[in-house]
Amino acid sequence: MEQHVLEILEYNKIKKRLAKHTSSKLARKLVDNLKPVSDFDFIQERQLEVTAAKKILNREEKYPPLGGIKDVRDSLKRTSKEITLNGEELVEIADTLSTSRNLKRYLLNLEDEEDEYKSVVKYGTQLDNFKPLERKINKAVDNQGNVLDTASTKLRNIRRSITDYSQRIKDKLNSILSSKKYQSYIQDSLVTIRDKRYVIPIKSQFQEKVSGIVHDQSASKQTVFIEPMAVVKLNNKLRSFMAEEEEEVYRILTELTYEVREELDRIKETLKLLAWLDFTFAKAEYSFKIEGAEPVLNQEEYINLEKARHPLIPQDEVVPIDIKLGGKFDTLVITGPNTGGKTVTLKTVGLLTLMAQSGLHIPALSGSKIAVFDEIHGDIGDEQSIEQNLSTFSSHMTRIIDILETAQENNLVLLDEIGAGTDPTEGAALAMAILEELYSRGRINTIATTHYSQLKTFAYQQEGIQNASVEFDVETLQPTYRLQMGMPGRSNAFEIAGRLGLPTEVIEKARAKLSEEDIEVDRIIQSIEESKQSIVENEEAARKERKKAKELKEEYETKLEEVEKLEQKIKKDAYAEAEKIIAESKKKVNEVVTEMKEKAEVNQQEVDRAKSKIDEYKYNLSSERVDLESDLKQQRIQQNSEDLEVGDKVRLKKLNKEGEIIELSEDKEEAVIQAGPMKVNVDISRLEQMDESDQQTEASNNSNGLNNDTNIGSLKNKKSRHISPKLDLRGLRAIEAKEKVDKYLDDAYLANISKAEIVHGKGSGVLREVVHDLLDEHSQIDEYRLGGKDEGGSGVTIVKF
């Protein structure tokens, strides 16, 4: 892209804001080098990466571990030249390699059943593991870059000697400082160091009184620092040990540098991947910041931005715009008042196109379409040059001439105030000629802003050119900044002048000086605006009516449901009361019958006949209750079948088999059911939705089977018959392997397997690391190790429970 266009569209400001979201200097370097490209596949891939990174940031609780990435390129360059690195440099390398390992683990452990993260996770699989090198560095060097005593046995012994001799020297010097003999000669009662040798401060006038070597004197020359002869030999020995320490430290650092050099190429590749991942997550963070979305890219020179916002204008101030370009028209002429938003619209389209072609999300609604252009040309703003003695018109013309010389197919041209700065009639004629020329070349998308009313008529008459305007509120005398596609803007000069107080007679005289054509055009535009306003008002009224109707429907359905529940309750209560009455009546009848039997005053046949009638009445009442309950259940089933959705648990009535809906026909008359391994296409009427009580009962039944020792023992016996002591993971992805190993470890433990083999292969080591991470965390694992030569070597892990 032309540097001029990047400047006038303020592309570098976007890069500065993006850089704030990076975690490392390496990623900031990638931001600095970021430029729009025209490779469609490359852009599409970058957009998918940002989308995947956004999903990770949005869904996962933990943020990607990017904080430890250091710019160790200079250190690696020194290593390649066989220059020994210092401790700080080695620590930075170790920290970076540790970040690589942690980031790899983070990405490979993400739950991603739908492969929505794969555009980012693929880089995680390419990150190398340098754990042995990390350990060597961390064992030898502390966080501040100091070589530790544990780096070697020799170093530890040397430092013990240094500590011992230092203490002996201090003790000797302290005895001198506390002796009465030297009390009057001493300036301060403290032991200090000069030239890496322990000394004591003596007053200058008494330096001859103290036998020893003078190493320094104070700025006032009142004090000299003397190394007494009594400690010279001890100091010499101490210096000897210090020299040995330096040699050993250098040897250790050189050895570690060699270890780094052995892995140099792999470290460099890992560094690039870390930088790229940091860069990608920074783009995702910036997308959140601007409420961005992945644009739908195309190669048909088609733009359709919905609710697009200029990313450099504060979100509480920016007015979203909808704009189309391409398809039926390739040229858009935008008219409207000054400060109405014409230039902002022009810059929004240009800047969002640059962002999209840089692999960045754009601040617009999801689904907004952006074309990938080979080049963007622009003439925006007043580029008048005092040095070159160019007027505003001349500077614009110079730029437009350059554009006409280079613009070709699949280019986007942005022209602000085309033809401005000269006589309006000639300027408008030039503007029309320029737009015609660009349109005639074919497949050049052009957006131009103008004040010239002649261009409004031109856009109506010319095929492939469309009008648009920025809205102006005559009531408030303020622009609304909204873009109106297909409608030219009115100047509103007379209305504004009238509201500001210009006498009516002056305004009418002005109107009289307009040509009939100008008046007619203004009248047509006004009519279109009024029609549009009427449509907007009607749409708003219709929207309110739809909302009101929806609320009434919901209210009706709620009340209907309440009435049905009340009806059911009344019937249920009535039948319950009837049963109670019958029971009491039967009891009384039985009492009477018993009493009559005792008195022998009634025929047994009559008694039996009476009891039979009572039983018949009771049976009929019970049947009616059963019928009611059946009707209620059938109503519930019918209601449920109407509400069935994909994913619902259902029961096939005739087969008495349970399953899950995986597909529904559009009319909801048929459904595809997954019942175990079998898929069945059935009529919706044959299905019964399982309610929560059904599913809870089923879950309870399942759980109750494992509530005693007998069942646990049975499970263990069953496991022991089916669990192999060997698990093969080769060919699986990391996340698949993790799930399989996790389940296998539990099953193997239940099966009382004492030793198991997990085959993960050698490869890149990703599967091995996943297995070892799980084994570290599993409470039932006694120990694990890599296989021996006869057991498969580093491609197998032996596990003991």
Automatic annotation (TrEMBL):
Residues 701-711 have a biased composition (Low complexity). ATP binds at residues 336-343. Keywords: ATP-binding, Coiled coil, DNA-binding, Endonuclease, Hydrolase, Nuclease, Nucleotide-binding, RNA-binding, rRNA-binding. GO terms for biological process: mismatch repair; negative regulation of DNA recombination; rescue of stalled ribosome. It is an enzyme of class 3 (hydrolase). Residues 690-720 are annotated as: Disordered. InterPro entries: DNA_mismatch_repair_MutS_C (IPR000432), DNA_mismatch_repair_MutS_core (IPR007696), DNA_mismatch_repair_MutS_sf (IPR036187), MSSS (IPR046893), MutS (IPR045076), MutS2 (IPR005747), P-loop_NTPase (IPR027417), Smr_dom (IPR002625). It comes from the Bacteria. Residues 525-620 form a coiled coil. Its EC number is 3.1.-.-, 3.6.4.-. Belongs to the DNA mismatch repair MutS family. MutS2 subfamily. Endonuclease that is involved in the suppression of homologous recombination and thus may have a key role in the control of bacterial genetic diversity. This is Endonuclease MutS2. It comes from Acetohalobium arabaticum (strain ATCC 49924 / DSM 5501 / Z-7288).
